[in-house]
Amino acid sequence: MKEAFLLDEECQLSRVTQEVLDYCDPFRCGDEDLDDFFANSAIAYENELMGKTYCWVLHKDVRKIVGMITLANASIHTTHLQNHPRRKINDLITYIKHGRTYPGVLIGRLGVNIDFQGAQYKVGAQIMDFIKAWFRSYDNKTGCRFILVDAVNNEHAIRYYERNGFRPLFPRINDEKAFYHIPENESLRTRMYYYDLL
C-alpha cells in the first residue's frame, strides 16, 4: 500500500547552507531548542567541523523545509563502559578481535516540520529509514557500524527511537547517571541509544 506522503519523491535532500536558510521559510518543529539550533547554530556547527545539517525541501513549495537532521562522526568506546553494556556491544561484533571503539554516526539533531507531523505523513520514520540506508550504502566513505543518538529523555522521543529499532546503551537510568557522574537525585536529561546497522 502506498504511503500518503513519500519523502524521497516529494522532497529534495539538500545540505543546509546560509543561502538555503535565507531562502526558505523559518523551520518550526514544535521544539524551541531545535528550531533555534537549525536557524542560528547549524552553519557555525558545520564551520567548526562538528557536524553537517541536511534538510528535505518540498518540491511543490521550495520554500518549505519538511525535515532537518544534523549528523556527526561518533563511536562507542567500550573500555570505560560497565560490564553489561560492554558485553552487549561486544557480543554484536563477530570480528575476531574486539576493539576499544566501534565506529558510528551520531544523530545530533532531528526535527520534522509541525505541518508534516503525524501518522498520515510518517516523516520521522522515513528520515530514520533514509539515515539507516545511507550509512549501509556502498557510497559510505568510512566504516560505520552503529547509529547513535543522545535522545531527549521524554516519553515521545524515547518511544520514537525504540519504535525505529534503537536500544538503550545502558540498561538502567541509574547506570547511565553513574557513567556520566550525575548525582542520583538529579534528572537525566538525555539517554544514549544505539542502532546496529548489521
Describe the 3D structure.
The structure is a single chain. This protein is an alpha+beta fold. The chain has one domain (7-196): Aminopeptidase, CATH 3.40.630.30. Helix content is 32%, strand content 27%. The chain contains eight helices and seven strands. It has helices at residues 7-10, 18-23, 32-40, 42-47, 83-90, 123-136, 155-163, 173-179, and strands spanning 11-15, 52-58, 65-77, 101-112, 146-152, 167-168, 190-196. The protein has a seven-stranded mixed sheet with strand order 1-2-3-4-5-7-6, with helices on both faces. Helix 6 (123-136) links the parallel strand 4 and strand 5. The chain is globular and about 50 Å long. The model has no long low-confidence stretch (mean pLDDT 92).
